[in-house]
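During the reporting period the student researcher (J.K.) took over the structure-prediction task from the postdoctoral fellow and processed the backlog of single-chain submissions. One of the processed entries is reproduced below for the supervisory committee.
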Amino acid sequence: MSGRGEGRGFGRGRGGRGRDGEGGGRGRGRGRGRGGGRGDREENAWVPVTKLGRLVKEGKIGSLEEIFLFSLPVKEAEIIDYFLKDKLQDEVMKIMPVQKQSSAGQRTRFKAFVALGDSNGHLGLGVKCASEVANAIRGAITFAKLNVVPVRRGYWGRKSGLPHTVPCKVTGKCGSVRVRIIPAPRGTGLVASPCGKKLLHMAGVLDAYTSTTGCSRTMGNYIKALYFALGKTYGYLSPELWKEHALLPTPYQEHTDYLAKKAVY
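J.K. obtained the following structure tokens:
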């Protein structure tokens, strides 16, 4: 019997094809080589998958405020990174284990609450549950970027200098927890719990009173209620916002010709 079939093998790994007994070759396998065939593309290169992402990457949208002005949904965390990457600061507010009863016993996972902001009127809060703490934190940071909202700031009394407090009394509710934020004079500081101070500072609020009712020991509901309250600051139209403004076309309408082209990256 000739040596033609002796070293053939069926694997796609390192063994050679074994033709005429010449085993030991490198083979045609796609195994774990040193170079890796797909290493040419940059690891961190962002390839947008939404129309908004394409407009942001091409520089058609100048700031995050344009997105908020037209209430465009942000579906990619890289859009927030594009505008606020160097300014965002994130902090893990709480990590708690949660359990689920299954047929095999109790299944334990970890729930992470992460808040992020730029201390200049932008705040995000993300919640993620995963089997490992690191994955939960990573997912919560992504969700926090997708949930970034603008926070309006105002004055207490005399309107001099930069805005330092919330423009009016606002209330947020989650579960049984109800949080009320009240404007305070300049120099008062943040009258709140330690985690409440962190959230208000990330939003750029320097002076404020807070009032809480309900079971505020449940930190998840407490920080959610505070986040909802800060998100309502643009919902109240004070007299300086009464001016009529011409309705501008949305970025999708303005750049229709560009979006009609096929994206090539």
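The committee noted the following: The beta strands are 89-102, 105-117, 122-130, 149-150, 170-174, 177-183, 190-191, 208-213.
J.K. will present the remaining backlog at the next meeting.
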